[in-house]
Amino acid sequence: MRVLVANNKGGVGKTTLSVDVLPYFFTSPEKTDSTNFTVVETDVENYVSQRISLEEVGGKWEQANMLQKDFREMHKLEALLENEGENIIIDTGANITTKRTIALIMGSELKNLIDLVVIPFTPDGAGEVNAVKTYKELRGKGYKNRIIFALVGATRIGEEELKLEFPNWFGIGWLSEGDIEEFLKGVERVENLTKEDLLEEVEIADWWEKEVAPEDRNYLVVPKNLAIKVRWAVGTKPLFYYLWKAKELQEEKKKSRKEVLELLKEANKPDLTKDEVKGLIQRFVDNESKYLATFPLVFYMSDTESFYKVIEAQRDVVFGKAQKVDWDELRALWEDKLFT
Fold it and tell me: Going along 122-173, which residue ranges are E strands?
């Protein structure tokens, strides 16, 4: 499967999808002795490949520098896409690298080799505008295969709650102005979203519906996860690697899940500094917990486990068997937290 992750705007989750989310569908702890997926880095200024290792999760990096108009780099990308039977994820970077990557692929027969395009966005206006521009450019250049949108950074899981966080995507038209006040009584406000905010959105309620064809309104929900942010600072592997090792530790030490969590609970704080994280790792080293010494995010196992339960539940969305997840299932998975 060949996947292109694209949005002209930076900071909307392209690399998180390319490293922490999409590879999860192509690998498993039992398959790490072979290469199951390749992530192609086109924005080499970020050098994510220098900080995050993929080998131990059954993956590898390739670089195709789209920052410069170098035909050798373009041919490298072409050659990667022409490898049949491989799982390839292309992280387009932002701005100029996204534009050049799309121009190269969509301006040639290479577009027929892309099985899926994932367009991530956050509900901040600019992310959505650029997501729509990216979508229209893809379809305008003749790309005919599947597109899904990734709603990145959801803080609550549930269809009604997401309508508050991503009102433009869902179309606030599903509420009349008279219904809004009654609706807010039954749903917690999300990040200070008020009645006035909702009323303002009514004016652009049908924006996404006008711009995106009904058959393309497939979507993947990517919950907000603190562990991913900390991992970028101190971790060296995709997030699911740490989850695998946490479970391995639990089995090796013959401890119950409750006992493992009690050991780690002290570190389950949202405001840890980098130095505090290092200090906790050293404590684990001193206690001879060999796996705890190798991954700094194990103390976020609760959120991480819930995160991947939600991602796994959307497998059918990624592979084209559904447009969206079963909401009752998704909500139950997310609310089954190990820490309270």
Answer: 146-154
